Every structure is written in C-alpha cells, then in structure tokens.
Amino acid sequence: MRNHLIVVAVVSLACLATVTGRAQRPGAEGFIAEGIPKMPNPPGPAPVRDLSGVWVGPQGDKYDTPPPMTPAGDALFKTRHPYGDASRDADLGMSNDPFITCDPLGFPRNLIAHAVSGRGRMIFASAPGRTLIAYEQQRVWREVWTDGRALPKAVDVRGMPESRLYGHSVGRWEGDHTFVIDTNGLDERPWLDEEGRPRSNQARFQERYTRKDQYNLDLTVTIDDPKFYTKPWTWMRGSFYWVQGQEFAETFCIPSEGIEYRDSIAKPSGIQIR
Fold first, then answer.
1. Where are the domains of the chain?
2. What is the pTM (predicted TM-score) of this model?
3. Residues in Cβ contact with 260 at an 8 Å cutoff, skipping those fewer than 6 apart
C-alpha cells in the first residue's frame, strides 16, 4: 500500500484534528455518523461488567482547556512544533511531531483516533488477570491488569520498572457498567496531544468507560501531572459506538513511507521537519 502513509500523513498532520475538538459530519439515514452504521434501535440493556467487542470513536469528543503549565512543562512545550499550526508558531511548515516518521503515538494521544477523524476502532478482550485493549491505529495493544496489583510507585529508578510509551495500567469495575483504568509510568517522549503538550513520567491518568446500553459507551479521561501542570483536569469526554459486523481494520503509519513522505512531499514543498 504505497500511498497509505501519504493518506495518513495528509489527514493526520495537515488536517487538522486538534485537541480543541473535531466537528463530526452528521450521519445519513441509517448512520449515526459518517461511516458508522446504526445498530437496531432501541438498543438492549448493557450487559453486566462486559465491554468485550469492537467499538468505534471517539464521537463528539470534547477537551477542556488545560490548566497553566509549570515552568518545566512550559519550557518543554515551547520546543515542540505541531504541523501547520499558526497559533503558536509563524513557521507553518516547521514541525518536529514524532509521528511524522511514525514514532509511537503513546498514551493517551492514541485515544484521539489519530488520522481517522473519530472513526478509529478499539477492541476489548480478556486474558487471565487482565483486560486487553487493542487499537486499529498502529495495531498496538495495552495490558490492563485486573488482578489487584498496584501501580508502580515510581519508574526509571533503581528497583522500579521502566517507563513505557503506553504506561502501566490497572483496572477495576465500579458497579456493573463502569470500568475504571488508572495509568502511570509514562515515557516522556510522546506528545500528550496534537498540539505537542507534554506529559511526564509523574503523570497519572484515569479512564472511566461507562456502558450506557448495548451499543453506547461513554469515556472520560482525567490527568494529574504535577511536574508539568498546575492542577488536574479532564482531558477528554467522548463516546464510542458498537461496530456493525465487529470488523477490526488495519491502519498503519509505516516508517519507510513516513520517510518517503518527508523527503518527497514535505521537504520539496518547503516543510522543514526537525
């Protein structure tokens, strides 16, 4: 798929999905949104303590205005240049977004359904003592431990685990329909969002997935990162919808094609990639 990365790069980097929110085109008859078929209406009740299956979203996602950064967070943020963003940098083409050459998006940026305009898919499955979440974008997966273990108290210090691009995660049920995931121990290299905001290895995230009924799942993500931000805040609110047919597609950013995009399109058109 020689043109695949070109499509991904143009959609994800030139376009425009930003953390201030993305407009969703209204769905045609029989669809809840563009490309997402409706399931039978009304939906049945939510099954008890079960998120298994394929979901598409986030739909209608909203992002709160982040709180002021600490001096350390602000200093790091100023070194980052999102693609084609004039809000912070007059050099429209200059970017050092690591995803240009397919470095991992990391958590929680992968939740934005990067490059697919809110139509990314994820699948929940189970294994002994854990819940697995796999993502269509980059075919990455997360391991959420449900065996009662605690999150690491620190990372990247002697006697403690290393930080991870997608963090260390534990999960638990609150009642019959809300699955709560706490994550910490993040590698600091990936961006928090499309704007290049940082998140530190001291950050702690909480995801709350609430299954409203058979076909609708709500998500709220909060962040507490005292190293880079002055107070906690709600990073995302969005919803996911049951996938008709339960297909799980393949969406890759391929490094060799990322380099080809950089060298054959970006640089000749005046874009400087640091």
1. 4-37+50-266
2. 0.85
3. 5
